[in-house]
Write a structure and sequence with these properties.
By secondary structure, the chain is of the alpha+beta class. It contains six helices and ten strands; from the N terminus they run αββαααααββββββββ. Helix 4 packs antiparallel against helix 5 and helix 4 packs across helix 6. It holds the Pfam family YjdM.
Length: 192
């Protein structure tokens, strides 16, 4: 059974965050690289657009987190925590965060994207031209790179899609080149 089908079964074909029933999609929680049921949630377009920053945050929409934060599924709890962190300045989300409990492993995963940090504390990844990189972006290598621990050379002009950011170091991103997962220094890539 596919991950998407399992998520639909798990959630009775409703958004796991707001319970909407139309336009449902699988969302893999960053910085996860593999699609599994344990690191994915089923979300509607409204939630997805706000999660990815395509539309402005609507605090009233996210009042649904009052229920979804108690989900038995850790992936849903993590997404609820992250969205509450983004909204915490509104007051009521901070009250929910004060009630919420995540075990150490889940809390570590929830903090991986820095949602709980102020803008001044966040690690910002920039390409060779100073353009800000985000999880899921596509980049192109600007020079030939030898891959440590292998005889492979990633050639200049190679496209790397769906990158993942290293949330401890602004100089590193991860991506697949010729089917192999590698770490790439940001000064050698250009966002496409």
């Amino acid at each position: 059974m596919s991950v998407l089908q399992t998520l639909k079964e798990r959630s009775n074909s409703t958004c796991e965050l707001c319970t909407a029933t139309n336009d449902l999609k699988q969302y893999v929680i960053p910085p996860s690289l593999n699609e599994t049921v344990d690191n994915s949630v089923l979300v509607c377009n409204t939630c997805l657009d706000q999660i990815e920053g395509n539309t402005d945050m609507d605090a009233n929409h996210w009042r649904c987190l009052n229920d979804s934060m108690w989900s038995e599924f850790v992936a849903v709890q993590i997404m609820a925590w992250r969205m509450l962190q983004r909204l915490r300045k509104d007051g009521w989300p901070q009250d929910l965060l004060d009630m919420m409990y995540l075990d150490d492993e889940a809390l570590s995963l929830a903090r991986a994207t820095g949602e709980d940090k102020d803008e001044s504390e966040k690690i910002i990844h920039r390409d060779v031209n100073g353009v800000i990189l985000e999880n899921g972006d596509s980049v192109v290598l600007v020079k030939d790179l030898k891959v440590k621990g292998s005889s492979m050379v990633a050639k200049q002009g190679t496209a790397v899609r769906n990158i993942r950011l290293d949330h401890e170091n602004a100089e590193y991103i991860e991506g697949k080149v010729d089917g192999q997962q590698i770490v790439i220094v940001t000064q050698y890539v250009k966002k496409t």
